[in-house]
Amino acid sequence: MARKLAVIGAGLMGSGIAQVSAQAGWDVVLRDVTDEALRRGTDGIRTSYDKFVAKGKLAADDAEAALARITATTDLDAVADADVVVEAVFEKLEVKHEIFRALDKLVKDEAILASNTSAIPITKIAAVTERPERVVGAHFFSPVPMMRLCELVRGYKTSDETLATAREFAESTGKTCIVVNRDVAGFVTTRLISALVVEAAKLYESGVATAEDIDLACKLGFGHAMGPLATADLTGVDILLHATGNIYTESQDEKFAPPELMRRMVDAGDIGRKSGQGFYKH
Fold it and tell me: Is the whole-model pTM more than 0.85?
């Protein structure tokens, strides 16, 4: 398999995908629009490698070799010879359309274009390209170096070959894949967590139980590693509000309608761990 990867977006997800791919031997071009974003992304990768080295899970030489395989750039043209491109930018269709239009004209015909979207239908993203059969969803989970799952999503025109290549790429980075055969908004994982978080937030909002007890019920009753409201704080209440909103807009299914509490939390900036306050104080 060809081994040149381009990652568009150096945020938490993009830098994580670059990190595990470089560690697996891929030559990686990590592209973002500002030098500052690239610096934050590469600093995060270096810090993560250092932690693995300190824990004895990665040799120092291997960490240095992996870092050397990552090229950070603001130049989109630098991704032109990539075999696989993974887009990991903001969850807004217009933003993704702009990226995919540009990539479609730029990369070689045999390259596959993957989106790390967690909720937007792949068919909608692929529609602006001349190669919808070579567009696929590759939804990694945060933090990418720790989470073993990759959700592969077949768009309406995604070919079997593209899906197989995406699986080969994801598995080469140590991930286990599930395949979403019908391109519904939110796929499998985001639909499941969104429905759970929305219901948990409604129970909390209406005073049925405390956030702690709702989460404890899921941990001890269902064997979940983390409760839904703690998960919302970890992921970002704003991120989940946006994802559930996308699914609700697409499906008009009331179980995905975000409760008013989540909207007000986001309005107030109480979006979870990254702000110091969400359903819990951090």
Answer: yes
